[in-house]
Amino acid sequence: MKLKSYTAANMNTAMEKIRQDLGDNAIIVNSSKVAGGVRVTAAVDNSKESFETINHKVSAPKFQNQLFDLFKFHKIPPVLMQKFIGLLEHNAPDIDTALQNIFAASFKFEPLKFSLPKPLMVIGMPGIGKTLAVSKMATEASFYSKKINVITTDIKRAGGVEQLTAFTKILGVELIVARNPKELKEALEPTTGQITIIDTAGANPYDQIELDGTKELLQVADVEPLLVIQAGGDVEEAADIAHAFKFANAKRMLITKADSARRLGSIFAAASTNNLAFCNFSGTPNVGKGLDPVTPKSLSSLVLRPIQ
Predict the structure, then answer these.
(1) What is the dihedral of CA 94, 98, 104, 109, to 10 degrees?
(2) pTM for this one?
């Protein structure tokens, strides 16, 4: 494996250098701010051998060939693929259990619980199902014996407020619209000890002005940022998006559109890029269904779905 560090004026310039030098399979290992810009360390598998060649050289555990094919189908990055295969146990009774054990050893899993100690702010790029996810969260939160507050700062998307209003009315919850950070701060002041979910406008991960807008919202109060990544997207793009939102210091990642995606390499790339814990996924457009927790078992089921 080849590791190389780059210093550039900004993250976009660094990423361009990395792709030119190491190629599209490079994975971000670490990044930090330095005087005059950023320093980024990237890794890439520099072996000229294919995975199939490596496979024949190794004393192969059961299911190794199947997992190679499955991981390649999902476009899982080569560095992660090698890590997963290295964690495959020789005595796994079936491929499902083998995957569960690999995922349990590779990732953190922290499903949402709605006895939330602080407000939850949903962030991410436009058009990935954040508002639907907020509606599903509010539906699940309605089963707890606490007052629910749903706040939206998404006033720029046509129909965004109306869509969320329709959902909250069904639950008997008033939607609060905060048009700027000041109004958001005022809306949050009386919500201590209650369940509060904040929907935000999608931010273009390559537009610093829009990212700064999300940063300003995060700074008005002590909230937990929840990064939303859609399933089925381009693997390298998902890693770039997750890295663009690294400023938010999100600990957990929610997956949307899992019902309409067959290849899931993007969610693994995003999670590994920022060391994010998997929390929940949206597996249906039905608001009443709520969100499903991501566990090693449910993640294995999603990965195995194309071959079942």
Answers:
(1) -60
(2) 0.78
